Amino acid sequence: xxxxxxxxxxxxxxxxxxxxxxxxxxxxxxxxxxxxxxxxxxxxxxxxxxxxxxxxxxxxxxxxxxxxxxxxxxxxxxxxxxxxxxxxxxxxxxxxxxxxxxxxx
Amino acid sequence: xxxxxxxxxxxxxxxxxxxxxxxxxxxxxxxxxxxxxxxxxxxxxxxxxxxxxxxxxxxxxxxxxxxxxxxxxxxxxxxxxxxxxxxxxxxxxxxxxxxxxxxxxxxxxxxxxxxxxxxxxxxxxxxxxxxxxxxxxxxxxxxxxxxxxxxxxxxxxxxxxxxxxxxxxxxxxxxxxxxxxxxxxxxxxxxxxxxxxxxxxxxxxxxxxxxxxxxxxxxxxxxxxxxxxxxxxxxxxxxxxxxxxxxxxxxxxxxxxxxxxxxxxxxxxxxxxxxxxxxxxxxxxxxxxxxxxxxxxxxxxxxxxxxxxxxxxxxxxxxxxxxxxxxxxxxxxxxxxxxxxxxxxxxxxxxxxxxxxxxxxxxxxxxxxxxxxxxxxxxxxxxxxxxxxxxxxxxxxxxxxxx
Lengths: 105, 403
Fold this sequence. Notes:
The complex is a heterodimer of chains A (105) and B (403). Chain A is mostly helical and 105 residues long. Chain A has helices spanning 27-36, 44-60, 66-72, 77-83, 88-95, and strands at residues 2-6, 9-13. Chain A has a single domain, classed as DsrC protein, C-terminal domain (Arc Repressor Mutant, subunit A, Orthogonal Bundle), CATH 1.10.10. Chain A contains 5 helices and 2 strands. Chain B is α/β, with parallel strands linked by helices. Chain B folds into 3 domains: 2-88 and 233-299, FAD/NAD(P)-binding domain; 91-231, FAD/NAD(P)-binding domain (3-Layer(bba) Sandwich), CATH 3.50.50.60; 312-398, no CATH class. Chain B is built from 8 helices and 23 strands. In chain B, strand 12 (165-170), helix 5 (180-192) and strand 13 form a beta-alpha-beta unit. The chains are: A mainly alpha (105), B alpha/beta (403). The interface between A and B is medium-sized, with 20 and 26 residues.
């Protein structure tokens, strides 16, 4: 666990940069993390996914898997990959300031 | 329940078929080590006297009216309902998987029929690229695909085909397993056996004619023989039962009491639930203890016990008559050590041994003769025990774990 500064505020993150305390998150931090991940501008579609992930995590204590995301976020898996290349569930969770989704065992 | 309440309790088991499968042995069928018929027995014969067995397909559950509706219109009222309808294979949900080549060059061994037909294909296999693909999690027994890779390595060596075969594990996970210590150790074992891992491979579609797997992020994997672990979902009736399941059809329950969120008199067990632990048989066995206690508490109007800790315990067959054992729960990842007696074992945790292999084979008999009839296995408790585990490999986040 390390502390980094995002959008001018120190926050706790894990080894891969996922926020450990979702309550520390702001939208500006999300935008900054998106830029570091190569997404220049977060569009409305991006935010639809990010907000959905965050809400699901805060309501249920678990981030949705990519499959669940494709079924319930209103954005199909193909588009999820266009929005968040290389791994939508992980990247959207990171930008949304929630812990890394744990694959079910 | 019969032991606790005697004849005053009516217990009815409803199932759509009368074939109970010892699923851990499905792994051995493709290698000709076990005959498909030998792992199936009639469900009705496993139940004790006084428990009624009904053949029937459930259409939906109406929790507001405490009623199970069967296809055909029959209804069954209940005071307490236990949903144990398991996880289903959904190969048709992956584009192309059940198209050309399904049953010829692409198979799954997660069903009796699939394992039997893969067995024939393995018999005729002459080398090439053998790809084991987990389409997405959750799946029943998340380590079975690793075991399949290990056994393939052994089997191909035995037949003199290993040098002519590449074994590839294409997994949506970022490593061999979800938990760090076991992922590292199992990753090393895969490397030692020269099994290639294509990590974070989210399968988008299968092109059976060209024999290629395509991922959503546009990677491709060629195969000569595809062993697919298809998507899993809950039983179809769950979707038609208001509020009972999550978006994948698994019953939403309290992870510690196993009571359904939909209604206080509904409980779920095994791979039918949405709890974040292994969808394997050992878990259902450990859950059964909590479930039995909690149904009793519920009927007496008492508070439920939050006693299920996610405990899972599984043998991983690694080939060449060896296996290793994992023991973990919601909070504690699999660690090296001895099991069940601290320091003595005789089983080793997270380390290959011949005894663990014998343990896996012996478990067959224990399953039919001890577990299914509801007897306890000596020395093995429903909750995970920390004694005997080497915690020195843990990162700092696991403080506060006791046992």
